[in-house]
Amino acid sequence: MLNKEEIKNIIPQREPFLMIDEVESMEPGKYAVCYKNVSDNEYYFQGHFPGNPIMPGVLITESLAQAGAIAILSLEENKSKNALFAGIDKMKFKKIVKPGDRLKLEVKIIKQKGPIGVGEALATVNGEVAAKGELTFALVDNK
């Protein structure tokens, strides 16, 4: 549905920290289904871990947060805003993510009151759960 250049029109992250390669589907303010193609050229594999590259759990979490940001920032009234982490809850890591994996990132917005909201996040590789949890976000003006 959306390629990398179109994604950059929604969220402010840029390489090397843009963790979304494409958006498969979304409904603004409700959910987003995105993908991160994990390549062996990722900068973090140089040190995590040499000879046994594993995508850090915090970057899987960041990828999920960016998917959630796509869902919430694609709303017309949020176009001048940014979504920041306000909390991470119940995050579990179930599968190692390695170079060559295609990480599917699904985030459903389950609560929102004013500028604070919660997304239910699920990352999978080939249908197997890699990570899941809840991400709390705070909408702020993008200055």
Key features of this structure:
mainly beta; 143 residues; 2 helices; Thiol Ester Dehydrase, Chain A
Strand order of the largest sheet: 1-2-4-5-6-3
Can you count the beta strands?
6
CA-based shape: globular
Structural class: mainly beta
Main sheet specs:
6 strands, antiparallel
CATH H-level superfamily title: Hotdog Thioesterase
**Order of helical and strand elements:** HEEHEEEE
Describe the structure.
The chain contains two helices and six strands; from the N terminus they run αββαββββ. With 143 residues, the protein is mainly β. It has one domain: Thiol Ester Dehydrase, Chain A, CATH 3.10.129.10. Strands 1-2-4-5-6-3 form a six-stranded antiparallel β-sheet, with helices on one face. A hairpin with a 2-residue loop joins strand 5 and strand 6. The two termini are 28 Å apart.
Please summarize what this structure is:
The chain is mainly β and 143 residues long. The protein has helices at residues 4-7, 57-73, and strands at residues 22-27, 31-37, 81-93, 102-113, 116-125, 128-141.
Write the layout of secondary structure elements.
Elements: H1 4-7, E1 22-27, E2 31-37, H2 57-73, E3 81-93, E4 102-113, E5 116-125, E6 128-141
Antiparallel strand pairs: 1-2, 2-4, 3-6, 4-5, 5-6
